[in-house]
Amino acid sequence: MGACGWLLRRLTVPFGTAARLVMGATAFVALVVAEFGLASALAGRSVADWFAQYRHTPGMIGLLGQIAFGLLPLLR
């Protein structure tokens, strides 16, 4: 939360919902792209394998955590 607050001040993101959702969505997409890139490069996982992880409880919990990460600018 500290890093999120620092970035919000540093980038002077307005208090409006739309601006904060755009920032959160951008962060979420960057996180997912990085995760998939590392999963494919380091573990050799395909797109189907990567999406299949979300069918199980640990994958769903991880996805919820990533969504919460994307909502931090709005909640802050």
Summarize it.
The chain has 76 residues and is mainly alpha-helical. The protein is 80% helix and 0% strand.
Looking at this protein, list some descriptive labels.
4 helices; single chain; 76 residues; mainly alpha
Instruction: Give the termini separation.
Output: 7 Å
Low-confidence stretches: none
Globular, elongated, flat, extended or rod-shaped: what is the shape?
Answer: elongated
Largest sheet entry: none
Please report which band the strand proportion falls in: under 5%, 5-15%, 15-25%, 25-35%, 35-45% or over 45%. under 5%
Describe the model:
This protein has one domain. The relative contact order is 0.19. It is mainly alpha-helical and 76 residues long. It contains 4 helices and no strands. It starts with a helix and ends with a helix.
